């Protein structure tokens, strides 16, 4: 199962704390017993055959149920436990969650550490599988049965430009103006789509790029001293508009909100510690900034 999900003997060996040869031998025995090829070697990994895909589909759900059941037997009492949790959070919500955690009285032995999302989905889900992280808050939910997801918050998108922008003086921006301006963009793609492409219902033409950034804070800083336009979460724009000297404009598309999702490993569905953490994070973010117009 782990070799199938990771498509790598090396990663499977690391996760199982086995040698690569032991994993290879186990796969060879399974192949002999099944009488079918399970994997084909690729450049730096393995690719499951059709037989392996069918076998995985049949076994995945029952095995995950067993793992979840066993995980649920583990005891956890927050007031008596010593535990450090790790939560990956996308940049649009990480500061909100950090503030909420600072203002929350935690049990003395419990620590919740927030970290920005890794750059790639592969790393995110590898860390979930290897239990390097307990929860993920992301703008896309997993489509794999190995991971469970639930909707967490809905937040508004907006555009920001510097105050005194020569072509956008009226605190508004049309769709045509949006597409004609140069953009400071987030250098992050998920499922082959750029940041804004995750949210709008239409296929956007290629936009002129003023600059690319790895963070939303970097985007707002670049906009503050240029004529670039940027798309950012509304609550971040409100928080930093005075510091960066920004105008906050309505996002000129029909869909102007984005969803955040809580994602965890399905085998932790009934795990008492993970359940407690999910309930804590959900309760802290349920009173997040309301979705209101920027007008």
From TrEMBL:
Domain HTH lysR-type, first and last residues per copy: 1-49
Keywords (A to Z) from UniProt: DNA-binding, Transcription, Transcription regulation
Transferase recorded as keyword: no
Highest taxon, organism lineage: Bacteria
Magnesium is among the record's keywords: no
Listed InterPro entries: LysR-type_TF, LysR_HTH_N, LysR_subst-bd, WH-like_DNA-bd_sf, WH_DNA-bd_sf
Pfam families: HTH_1, LysR_substrate
Record-level Gene Ontology MF annotations: DNA binding; DNA-binding transcription factor activity
Entry's family note: Belongs to the LysR transcriptional regulatory family.
Protein's name according to its UniProt entry: LysR family transcriptional regulator
